[in-house]
Design brief:
By secondary structure, this protein is mainly alpha-helical. The chain has two domains: about 300 residues, no CATH class; about 270 residues, no CATH class. The chain is built from 21 helices and four strands. The protein has a two-stranded antiparallel ribbon.
């Protein structure tokens, strides 16, 4: 393979656009020498990553085509090719994980470096929680499929027996080795990680399409729904009738089958979130293959403990966040009970919109206050390339597109239809507040993730004074550099560290109060849509203007992203709470 010393050194800078000057272990002191070697160090690893990247791209596209063919075609695939393909993919991933954990991990010098930003405590704990609920889901799914084995394909009955070991093995891999920067057998390692990532994405996509079909069937089968205010066409009705007629395999009066199916439906959101989170962590491992970390760069692993709440003096954030949780649970239960009753459906919608219209403005104000604290603290931004931080930003922005898209579509519908009734006005207000809250929260989180946990920046007055007095100010730093030999970052460390520990202690508490409140609020805003509260399906300007079928597709594209955004925001806010 490519484990020889020379290739390892060439592969040390993979994944970084401009490698940091302190990244190689044996970097030459001469700056010109370093610049001459730089093109060679960047060329080789990019080609190797390209091979595994193209492999993953083709696997995901083929799997997505198979899943879409099964979900969108009225007749589906004749031989359950999408299930067979995913079983094969999970089997190959299991083989690679066994190879890595039982043999490759024991080889000397396979993992000389650790990425301490990857696999944080909060993210790992949430991942293990989702994995535990997913295993319960597989138990319910196995019971349901065994009850319906006479009318279910063999590949579908076999899938949970392969998927459960795949999930268990992947959870252990991420819990124990998510920080690894692997430096041997890089081609096999990248290819194996790409197979796992592809399996996660396809299993999530399959779960989304199955959940979409389930919701559409339930909406059409529910005789209590009132679609009189929609512009549904005859084609829409015929399409939905075709979907309803496709459900030929039902539990009937079997109590065990109905119990297993209900548990399967309740636990579905946890399984969907697991695959997204696991896929993100696997992607970071793939980016870290061959990456070198300088020994002096680690800021120290921080653990989330109850001391932050008990000794940190945090009171208001957890208290008001707990009130948001309690009120949200009460409204959630009432909504689920009343939405199925024709005389109380409007009241259920009012509860949903009223709760969000009360919570989201407070969250927006907290984000603005957090951004002001960022400005007052003047912490140094982390300038190094970090795959984990880059992925966090990409996921926050990409996942927010789901709710942002739905909000903008609702605005377009409001301009066309108008807001004549109370519910239409509330739906428009909800869309506008969603836009504001998502944008402000993204800015607050992204700014916080890129702040240095310890260093404070120099005051701007020194820069202006250096312009008016260039000779006097330019000579002092030069003499100081010659005398001490410190880099610019080390100068900031020595000058700013005492200020961080002794100046403005109230900013630390304010930041933790804000993060605690936003964490609990985002948890509740994740629970509500994840467990089946989707008033946009049954009410709203979008359905009136675009029609049921088109609006149903738009909502099902945006809702899974919105659910993932809330959970990913919780993980990012946990990191801000710890590093405040």
């Amino acid at each position: 393979m490519d484990s020889d010393r020379g290739v390892t050194e060439l592969d040390s800078f993979q994944g970084t656009g401009n490698p940091p000057s302190d990244e190689p272990v044996n970097a030459p002191v001469n700056g010109s020498e370093h610049q001459i070697q730089e093109p060679e160090q960047l060329w080789v690893p990019s080609g190797r990553r390209l091979i595994s990247g193209l492999l993953g791209l083709n696997v995901v596209l083929l799997g997505a085509a198979l899943v879409a063919g099964e979900a969108l075609s009225p007749e589906g695939l004749k031989h359950q090719e999408h299930q067979v393909f995913m079983l094969l993919l999970m089997g190959l991933s299991l083989v690679w994980m066994l190879w890595y954990l039982l043999w490759a991990r024991k080889q000397p010098d396979i993992c000389p470096h650790k990425d301490h930003h990857a696999g944080g405590v909060a993210v790992t704990l949430v991942l293990m929680l989702f994995a535990a609920f997913s295993l319960l889901l597989y138990i319910c799914r196995i019971g349901y499929l065994i009850s319906m084995r006479e009318c279910k394909p063999a590949a579908q009955v076999l899938s949970p027996f392969i998927e459960a070991p795949f999930l268990t093995m992947q959870t252990y891999l991420l819990w124990a080795h998510s920080k690894d920067c692997i430096h041997r057998h890089k081609i096999i390692t990248r290819s194996g990680l790409v197979l796992i990532l592809s399996a996660d994405l396809l299993l999530w996509l399959n779960a989304v399409t199955e959940d979409t079909i389930h919701e559409e069937i339930e909406l059409e089968k529910d005789d209590k729904l009132d679609f009189s205010n929609t512009n549904s066409t005859e084609a829409d009705v015929s399409d939905l009738a075709g979907v309803t007629n496709s459900t030929l395999c039902q539990c009937g009066t079997s109590a065990a089958c109905l119990t297993f199916r209900k548990g399967f439906e309740i636990l579905y959101p946890f399984n969907m979130e697991f695959y997204l989170m696991a896929g993100c962590m696997i992607y970071v491992m793939w980016k870290n293959v061959g990456r070198r970390m300088s020994p002096g760069h680690h800021h120290g692993a921080q653990k989330l403990t109850l001391q932050i709440v008990s000794q940190g003096g945090i009171i208001y954030g957890p208290v008001f966040g707990a009130l948001v949780l309690v009120a949200g649970v009460a409204f959630f239960v009432l909504y689920q009970v009343w939405v199925s009753q024709q005389e109380r459906r409007v009241t259920a919608f009012l509860l949903f919109y009223g709760y969000h219209l009360a919570v989201m403005p407070v969250m927006s104000l907290c984000c603005v206050a957090g951004m002001l604290v960022h400005r007052l603290e003047r912490r140094v931004s982390e300038g190094e390339h970090n795959p984990t931080r880059s992925l966090d930003v990409i996921l926050l922005v990409a996942a927010a597109l789901g709710q942002l898209g739905l909000s903008y579509f609702s605005l377009v519908a409001a301009l066309a239809v108008g807001t004549q009734g109370l519910l239409e006005g509330l739906d428009l207000s909800y869309s506008l507040l969603s836009l504001l809250e998502l944008i402000l929260q993204n800015i607050f989180i992204i700014q916080g993730l890129h702040r240095h946990p310890n260093l404070l920046g120099k005051k701007r007055e020194k820069r202006w004074s250096s312009i008016f007095k260039p000779k006097k100010k330019a000579a002092e730093p030069t003499q100081e550099e010659k005398r001490t030999g410190l880099s610019l970052l080390e100068e900031n460390t020595s000058a700013a560290a005492p200020k961080h520990h002794g100046k403005k202690p109230w900013t630390k508490r304010v930041m933790r109060e804000i993060c605690a409140f936003l964490i609990l609020s985002n948890v509740m805003l994740w629970v509500i849509p994840a467990f089946g509260v989707h008033p946009q399906f049954e009410n709203g300007l979008g359905k009136q203007f675009f029609g049921f079928s088109a609006w149903f597709v738009l909502v099902n594209l945006g809702q899974p992203l919105s659910v993932f955004y809330r959970m990913h925001s919780v993980g990012a806010l946990m990191e801000l709470l710890i590093s405040a």
